[in-house]
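QA checklist item 7 of 12: single-chain prediction sanity check.
[x] sequence parsed
[x] length recorded as 96
[x] structure emitted
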Amino acid sequence: MIGHCAVEFTVDGRTVVADLPAGSGGGKRHVGAELTVRYEADDPQVVAREEDVDGGGAAVFTVLSALGAVFFLVLTGIAAGARRRRGRKERVQPVT
């Protein structure tokens, strides 16, 4: 399965196998490579890479969202300006 990355770790003497969330980047490592994970104390199946905690992914999402919003606003401004110019041309033409 594309994007599927399982991690195996030990909690209180019990071996836990959990899936990393999609898009976490854990699949970029080789099988058997060690990495640091954080997990929910009540449910060790809820796990995330250490690198993905503390806003790394959220910061990327925020920047991409902001760039998308700016792009949309620029396109809207261009379209409004073109429409305004077209309206002026129609009004300037003499009526016969």
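[x] summary fact logged: DSSP finds one helix and four strands in the chain.
[ ] second reviewer sign-off
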